[in-house]
Amino acid sequence: MTSFVPLDDAPRWVGRQLFESPWMTVTQQHMDLFHASTDLNPSVTDMAVCEANPAPDLVDGFWLSSMLAAMHFNHNPIRSPGMWGLNLGSDQVRYISPVFVGNRIRYRCTLDAVVPHSHGTILVTTNTAEIEGGTRPAMVAVIRTLSSTEPQLPRGRAGP
Amino acid sequence: MVAQAFASTRNPADYHPLEQAEQLLGKQLFQTDWMQAKRKHMMLFHDAIETNPEDSDVTICLSNPEADNIMDGMWTMSMVVNFHFNHNPIWSPGMWALFHGIEKARFPQPLFVGQSIRCTATLNEVREHRYGRIVVSENLVEIQGEDRPALIATTSALFRIGAMPGQSAAGPT
Lengths: 160, 173
Hints:
The complex is a heterodimer.
Chain A (H helix, E strand, L loop, with lengths): L16 E4 L3 E2 L2 H10 L10 H4 L9 H6 L1 H8 L8 E12 L8 E14 L2 E12 L7 E10 L12
Antiparallel strand pairs in A: 1-4, 2-4, 3-6, 4-5, 5-6
Chain B lengths: L1 H7 L19 E4 L3 E2 L2 H10 L10 H5 L9 H15 L7 E12 L9 E14 L2 E12 L7 E11 L12
């Protein structure tokens, strides 16, 4: 990351790439921890649908999406003192090419829009996960994040 | 081996065959029991996606006034897989599923450690795909005692019986 961009200056970055991450290897440990965190193990979950999958080393699409948190923590240059982020959701996510354990991936992020919000600013980004040596991306995801420096999270009917 | 034993307990007569999935269009597929979002889930999830202080710059996370207790929205989203594994009535022997995408997802209300959630899924669409059938469902994840849900997500998955032709090169789109 070169330097931070204050949240107030984010509109100037619309249409530009915010970051490109280094390559990282997807390991079996990532999958094991992900499955443990979502109770995807045979002692508590019916894995019948999973067992019939002819590619047991296939990486979960939702893990690919979830990794966006780490990518933005580490590489998103938009940051102001005291700023926090809340994932508001996705407009569209596509898992285009399968990723397998052992593949190397990286993420690119472009800022699509900056939208004022009563509790802060919504940043809309398009995030692409690429597979090293692949011709098609693993995932393209448009996500919406509420960025704010307010002292409290919006909750209840005043929620985001 | 344990997993194989679990699968063998499925009786096709208890499920709705994939080829007749459209008969469930517009209907509720399932509603889960309440389950508690535990700190253990959150910590394992952070390890899985490398958002702990050893792996990531968690400055933004630490600025969050409720950082210690808020569950990641993507954890809630990821639990949809679990809910479908356990409760989706569409199944045929040899069937497997590949998540194809999220049409739209919103997290209207933050979820906190200790709160309980349940998922209600409705079948929105079934369409043919060169590698199987795309099944689109709407998933509502409620928080016990709260007016607003933790998640509303329309997800699509490719359901297929048997191996993919040219499996390693073929993506779902």
